[in-house]
Amino acid sequence: MALTPLPTPPSRDDPANFATRGDAFLGALPGMVDEMNGALEYVAGSVQAAQNAAAAASASVGTTGTSTTSLTIGTGAKTLTIETGKVFVAGQWVVITHSANGANQMVARIDGYNSATGVMAVTVSRATGSGTAASWIVGLTPAPDDTALPKTGGAMTGAITDMGEGSTVKDPGGTSRKIGYRNLPRRAATSQQTLALDDVGKMIAITTGGIVIPANASVAFDLGDTVTIYNDSGSSQSITAAGGVTLRLAGNALTGSRTIAQRSLCTLIKVNTNEWIAAGMGVS
Fold first, then answer.
1. Between the CA of residue 169 and those of 180, 209, 225, what are the distances in Å?
2. Distance from the CA of 106 to the CA of which of 40, 43, 160, 268 falls in 20 to 30 A?
3. Across the strands, what pairs with 121?
4. Is the pLDDT of residue 149 over 80?
């Protein structure tokens, strides 16, 4: 709004009009004061309106919300209702925090959000605190670091201290392969031994009784499973194939039971469902 210009002020250089102009100038000042007060009120009103608009905009941010849904703190699938018209989308991560106690919160992946009803479905992967509450603040959060290691069910806690020989890793083609050893763990035996799954990747040091290779129906070794036999004695030891199993001597067409000479090594490798091959110095 524009202020009304003041009349020409009086001047000593124009004594003939000094009184007339002085009266007019002074008479206009009260009106000018009223106009200035009106301008100040207008500015103050505009500032308040801007502050109210900013507060309303902040309260309606599309990626924050509140909920009075009763939820029990914990992991797994949960459903809650927040305000409508938000811009949450499936795949985003949110932190759901108890409004009265920030230590009680859940980190969850959004499975779906209906902007018309405000219903949000989530899967909680991490929770802190305990109890049930019905006053929550919902806001976006970065995906947890552990989402790089997806898992199905259960919980992983503490340090990894041991991995069994049954553990697997995937090769470049996506096939699971058992984790091997950097040496041959030694198992001593003083009587006849029938190969077991626990023997894969190990060395059986036998002194008497010999070795039996079981049929696949009895012990389902994987193709490629390998067991080393060390004859830890001064006499020969036999390797016998159970019924239905073919045991071949590497490098020729011989099949059947094999003999390991004293202090000799034999490597046994499963090459087909019921077929093994024996190789090594002192094996006949």
1. 10, 36, 15
2. 160
3. 79, 112
4. no
Domain CATH number, residue 256: 2.60.120
Whether residues 131 and 93 share a domain: the answer is: yes
Backbone angles phi and psi of 146, in degrees to 5: -75, 0
Please give the tally of structural domains in the chain.
Answer: 3
- Tell me whether residue 157 is in a domain: no
pLDDT (average), residues 64-69: 93
- pLDDT tens per residue across span 195-227: 999 999 899 999 999 999 999 999 999 999 999
The answer to whether 116 and 67 are in contact (CB under 8 A) is no
Apex CA 19: angle with CA 18 and CA 23, to 5°? 115
The rounded distance, in Å, linking the Cα atoms of 53 and 49 is 6
Mean pLDDT of the chain: 87
Q: CB within 8 A of 111, min separation 6: which ones?
A: 77, 90, 121, 122, 123
The answer to whether position 162 is within a domain reads: no
